[in-house]
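Case study 2.
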Amino acid sequence: MHATTFTFRALEELEPGPRWQALFHELWPSYRAWFLHEGESARPSYAVSLRMLRTHMPELVPTYDRLVELAGGGDLEARMLSMWTPPAYISGCSQGVWTRGEPVLVRNYDYAPSRFDGIVLSTAWTGRRVIGMSDSLWGLLDGINDAGLVVSLAFGGRRVVGDGFGVPLIVRYLLEVCETVADARAALERVPCNLAHTLTMVDRDGRVLTAYLSPDRGALFSPVAAATNHQGEVEWSEHGAFTNTRERERCIVQMLEHDATNAERFVAAFLAPPLLNSAYSRGFGTLYTAAYRPRAGRVTYLWPGSEWAQTFAAFNEGTHPTSLVEPSAA
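Prediction:
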């Protein structure tokens, strides 16, 4: 077995300021390399990027302007922060929503540790409180807002690429401007996404929505409460086989339908195979499990043997070291 220690961090800065600026300077070299790895000409201009942000996410423009200022005001930084048509990237992920009683959205984020920030941010950038797992400097992999809306992303298992926003910024946008899954659906009907991704959502009233985003066919919606790495049919067979997307989906659905399942057992299922994955060296290891409870305004990050809870009422800054274990045969 091979074990790697990864340390998660939790930071609160309600308005963009020196703490976000310090994170930017720490993470920018790796994001700059990612943003340019296909060549600078492959990325849209600043003028196009800003126009798209103003057109589709005008509520975020004041925050964007402040972040660009904190980042130094450079052309490249501004283009990357717009998240308009960024480079493609592929992850795994499993997510499901328990609704028999207090709703709980549970998700596993499966990705390579070397390309993961591991930073939980608590913000109020547009006046609404948001807690979530940061990505792409101001986007989110999953999160909750103070209205009780929870949103989580998973790769959609399709190779199509097009013009649109990187999905972490879309998750941020929904949590900044929406209160219910109905609000989120209306927003997703007009916001383009550059890759195939699946968003699973639940609100305080237990309403569930899964959105299948794709640049070639817009957003499709379903009331299903489980999602892995395909959107209906498995279109990318190699990726589907490598990630066991069908098996993981069946596991979540069976847990949701079984009479003996309760919320605690549902959460625990994400901490064991087939939902828990350990192929970290191949970019498919579970970096964290998150259990979101919208009515309580609470998220608990979990790993086998440890957990770390955060709430709006008591957000605890600090660090949480974890051990990512990969069996030798993985």
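The chain has one domain: 2-15+90-326.
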